[in-house]
Amino acid sequence: MRIIKLTEASKYNILENLLKRSPNSYDQFESVVADILYDIKKNGDEAIFRYTKKFDGADINAQNIVVTQEEIEEAYNLVDSSLIEVIRKAIINIREFHIKQKQYSWFDSKPDGTILGQKITALSRVGVYVPGGKAAYPSSVLMNIIPAKVAGVETIIMTTPPGVDGKVNPGTLVAANEAGVDIIYKVGGAQAIGALAYGTESIPKVDKIVGPGNIYVALAKKAVFGYVSIDSVAGPSEILIIADEAANPRFIAADLLSQAEHDEMASAILITTSEELANKVSAQVDLFVKELSRTEIIQKSLDNYGYILIAQSMEEAIQVANEIASEHLEIVTKDPFNIMTKIKNAGAIFLGEYSSEPLGDYFAGPNHVLPTNGTAKFFSALSVDDFIKKSSIISYSREALEPIHKDIELFAEAEQLTAHANSIKVRFEK
Predict the structure, then answer these.
(1) Is residue 237 marked as binding?
(2) Packing angle of the helix pair 170-179, 69-78 (nearest 10 deg)
């Protein structure tokens, strides 16, 4: 991996390079996505079946677009029983973590007859997109479905691209069934997002779409926002590690590569105050790359977006980490909890040398659907909050309104909204 000493110029160049990976930088694909979405909106199922044949090679129609109970049972026979057991253990951890996020309606009443409050209502219908293609991710299925279930969403719909044989990855089906999905449709890509956003003869319109996907899926979600809500427009995966001279270089190298193997656009960055550690990690990365299975993807990721940055102080390392606002942030220092208190921007924070990023991906419980490309400055991890809406409750008695009605009328008249003022005034006419 390349080793760079941090300067103002190098910081600027690195940040600019990382931002190139944002879905907002791929305008050339937007017209293709717009055409697909328009086609789905106009032609419904017919367009869905046509695109599924074109992109996935599968013959899907109204009779086989829904995954059947028989297909789910077949998936259980194809998935190793030990993996099913691990999925069930992970579900317990994920559910327990998200239950703690659950919010409840509240009301505050006063003696004068004033009642104020907030009513929490779960979304009625949510669509979960699950990618196919290069790899299947049952863990993402769990992370998207479970918080929706905890929130109390009435109907959870999943869409995922089929293989040429018209079948869905068995691990994906098992995870979805264990997590509690209601119905699964065999459709992927931008066309799936369009179907969820607009509705077709087979697929009902949803209130919100969540889940990761390729650039076409990301841009489609961005385009349909407003017809439906979305979780976020996700970019490629990324990891940033802050480490000092006490860190184990073999551990650090392994953790950097855990994200570099996702795809060629993934980012893996180490910031350290130790030049010796930097050199050892770089050498260890080279050794691991030769041993691991996704060598070509890893190498392209490292060549394009991999950095080992040498900071003059831990304060500078923290400042740069906050500027990058990484999806995953590991802190592997003598006192990681102290460093953590100074971190403002990160999707998920992993503390100590035994809290490696895959622990969060699969098992610990916190959600692994996280903000990317610097959006951790203003976005949070997917949570139960993403599947609820809040309604304000206001109730005043005459006795509560009387002493303040002239204040409200004055405010409304100052904005030249006389009908507003009159709505209050008529209640106190003599």
Answers:
(1) yes
(2) 110
